[in-house]
Structure formats: structure tokens, C-alpha cells
Amino acid sequence: MSTFNEDTRVKVPATIQFLRLNYHYQSLKADDIDIDFKTKIFVNRFKPALEAINERNFTYDEIKIIITDIYNVLKNNDLGKEFYNWLINPQGKVKLIDFVDITKNDFAVVDELPFSIVEGTEEGSFRPDINILVNGMPLAFLEVKKPNNDGGIQKEFDRMINQRLQNPDYKKFFNLIQFVSFSNNMDYKENEDTDNIKAGSFYTTPNGNNTNFSFFREDDEKYHLTYPYKDIDIDTIKFIMKDCGYNPAETDTPEFAENLKTTTPCNSFVTSVFDKERFLYFLQYGIMFISSQIPEKHIMRYPQFFATRKIIERLDAGGKGGII
User: Would you list the domain boundaries of the chain?
Assistant: First the structure.
């Protein structure tokens, strides 16, 4: 009997798509797992990543101090500005991400990570479908729904803004998470009312009540066709299915094979925004804090993303003027 649902139709295939982008899969059942409760940082990935980035060894006591320092800045009522500034410009602090040599960073995904507020339980928790770890830090997540889900993608927007972002217990988590995305694995509908969006894949950065969600339309027609995807063997796919609590035999069905294609709307979106270089570009250059009576945090929209990259290409090529 088939148990196809949004997890087996969208979540697991999208998880595999991340692996095709050379992300690692982090199981919550792994023997070596070590998660700091207050920050949800995976110490088992954080420590070796920081050692590679900073070219030195750290004791566990030193790592504990760094994580405590991170936790202390995450508690600020600043939409995560102090933590974000640490990410992109350490200024004497330990470097958390290497934006110059991408290969030194550790990229991984973990499904259904509970962001809980009571240690030892999942009480008061929310569990994003796919969590993106950079050097063990959950800096992004992707929520998925099956196509034509009840209420469309707007239902997810409403839950994010009216429930999760309103909960003061989640503030530290949203000060940590820089990039939030949603997909119901459908193509965008042309001329759809932006206040009643039903279909597509969208992204944002947590900005309290002023959080807005953006489309992402790929600018390079050949990008997905020529992307150097890593081949993922069937044993790995079956392991992830089983690890997520589903029957591995379902990977042999035509429906699963169809949803596993790199070209599905959700999987194409994953490639476009979570390619390692592009994702770090978003983190380093795409987020801006605006000082006002009520501080705001914004992320560049996809036309700005591509336009700024074209400008950099022009300058790198020796160009000094012109219109892009």
C-alpha cells in the first residue's frame, strides 16, 4: 500500500537534491550526534568545521565558550543583527564561515529538527521539514507541501508570520536562521495576486511582522541543464527514506522516480538558491538591516541577486561602465 504524501513526494526528493549539490545528510539518529540545546548547533559538525576554517584546534571547552557567546547574542532584540555581523565580519572573533574558500565549510541537511523550548522534550517546538546546516549552524530551512495543498503556499506564509514569528520563545532561533523558504512543488502562476499566492517556491529572511516572501525565477536558462549534479546511489536514497520513517521500497515506484527528478519545481528551486556559492552569496551580500524606530531586516529579491552578480562579473572582466 502506497503512503505517498508531502514527505515522500516533496521532502525526501528535495533532501536528495541537496545531496546532489554536495551537501551531507545529517541523521538525527547518528551515534556521534551532539546538538547544543539552546542554539541547535550540531557540535559534531561545528567543531571540525571551525578547526578547518580557523586553521587551529579547539578544545571542547573552547567550543562550549564560543557557542555560549553565540547564544548570548542570539538573545538580543535586534532581529539577529549582532550575530549576522559576526557571521560576515568576525572582527577579532573566531571565524564562523569562510566566504573566500567555500571548500573549507561544512554543508549539511537534517530533516525535522525540533526547535524546542523545553529541554528533553519537544514541547512547544516547531520542526522545519529540511534544515540547512552551515558548519553545524542551522542557518536556513525549507518547508514543503504537496502540490495543490489545502490553502496553497499562502497557508505556510500565514503560519510563519502569525504563529512562529509571534512566539517570543522562538526569537533566538529566528535570530539564528537567516534564510527561510517554502515550496509546494508547483510552477508559479502568471499574474497571480501576490496577496493570495497559491503555488510556487518562495524565500525570505525573518523580519517579524514585516516579513515578505519573494519569488525566485532563474535568470540563466542553461543553469539547471548544465549543473554538475553529484550522483546519489539508490542505497543512500533508501537509507534516507528509512531514516525519515518511510518504506524504502517506495523508492522503486514510478511516482517516486518522477518526484526525484532534478527538474521538479521544488528541486529546481533548491538548486537555484542553495547551490553552495549562491547561498553564501545571499548570506554575505544579500541581507540588510535598516535602522528605524522599528528595526527591519531585508533580503535581496532575485532581480537584485542576478543584477549584482552581473556587475561583479563586469568589473572582474575589466569593465568600467555600461548598463546592466
Answer: 6-316
